[in-house]
Amino acid sequence: MTSEGLAGALAAVLGGRGLLVQGCDSGPAGEALAPVRLRKNVSYVVLAVFLNEQDEVLLIQEAKRECRGSWYLPAGRMEPGETIVEALQREVKEEAGLHCEPLTLLSVEERGPSWIRFSFLAHPTGGILKTPKEADAESLQAAWYPRASLPTPLRAQDILHLIELAAQYRHRARHPFILPQELPCSVVCQRLVATFTSVQTVWVLVGTVGMPHLPVTACGLTPMEQRGGIKMAVLRLLQECLTLHHLAVETKGLLGLQHLGRDRTDGICLNVLVTVAFRNPGIQDEPPKVRGENFSWWKVVEEDLQSQLLQRLQESSVVPVNR
Ligand SMILES: *[C@@H]1O[C@H](CO)[C@@H](O)[C@H](O)[C@H]1NC(C)=O
Ligand SMILES: *[C@@H]1O[C@H](CO)[C@@H](O)[C@H](O)[C@H]1NC(C)=O
């Protein structure tokens, strides 16, 4: 990939379109990059937030024995062979009786690859709200409740934050619509848009083994990598080329999400926006020195890309992860 290739790749990632994963620049030590299998070593959960014109939120009443009668947002585990959107539509149909379309990803929460939850803002496109007469093993019923007076008990309080995020997004969309891109991937990995900014200049870290490319880091399944969550994989890659102790590294959030789920590709690629800065305040004109030959900084001179990147950074215009 030439500099035009890099610019095209960055434009695709900033536009939420994604890019096929061609290989990984960093992987967990001593662990072969074996493909992951849904429900064997990875588990993904989908969740939907619906808000109507009256500021009501759609809740479902749980049927499962351990939480029977409590209220929650429509949510559930993905099944092998499904795309993320198909899983969302199936869960919403089973639990609430409605057909739906996702508008945008709202939030990603994770505890390493063994549990990742994708929450969407969605809107109903048909179907009939499930009444208590249709109670089954999936749910007892579904109903709209004013956001300010939710029923009790809730199955868990974690949905309050997601409902709040959805309301904020509807009030003022902080990031563009971000929907899963159907691109196959065999591992759980992250493609980094790792940026260093000085006054009006942005550099992006690139992998230089093969054609220059946006670096990809695979998440490990070892207990240590699981405990550290997916940010461990970002730090591992950066550690391979930068001296981190005088740097502050932050994952701002997601620019995009890639998954196919067919033909035994149960992996996921998260395109993440990361900032690298010096801990010591003061203007630094040049990015931190890169060790070795496998990475380098690319100065983004294309004006539209530069301004898009600066805007996404300044406004944190990304899908939050674990927040
Ligand atoms: C995940 O599980 C599958 C099926 O059990 C196995 O073949 C694969 O090696 C595992 N992947 C990793 C990365 O451990
Ligand atoms: C750079 O990449 C090559 C090829 O992937 C690898 O053999 C080498 O160990 C890497 N160098 C460093 C310093 O990680």
UniProtKB/TrEMBL annotation:
Keyword Methyltransferase: no
Keywords on record: Hydrolase, Magnesium, Manganese, Metal-binding, Nucleotide metabolism
Cofactors: Mn(2+); Mg(2+)
Catalytic activity: 8-oxo-dADP + H2O = 8-oxo-dAMP + phosphate + H(+); 8-oxo-dGDP + H2O = 8-oxo-dGMP + phosphate + H(+); 8-oxo-GDP + H2O = 8-oxo-GMP + phosphate + H(+); 2-oxo-dADP + H2O = 2-oxo-dAMP + phosphate + H(+)
CDD domains per UniProt: NUDIX_8DGDPP_Nudt18
GO biological process: dADP catabolic process; dGDP catabolic process; GDP catabolic process
Gene3D superfamilies: Nucleoside Triphosphate Pyrophosphohydrolase
EC code: 3.6.1.58
Protein name (database record): 8-oxo-dGDP phosphatase NUDT18
Origin species: Microcebus murinus
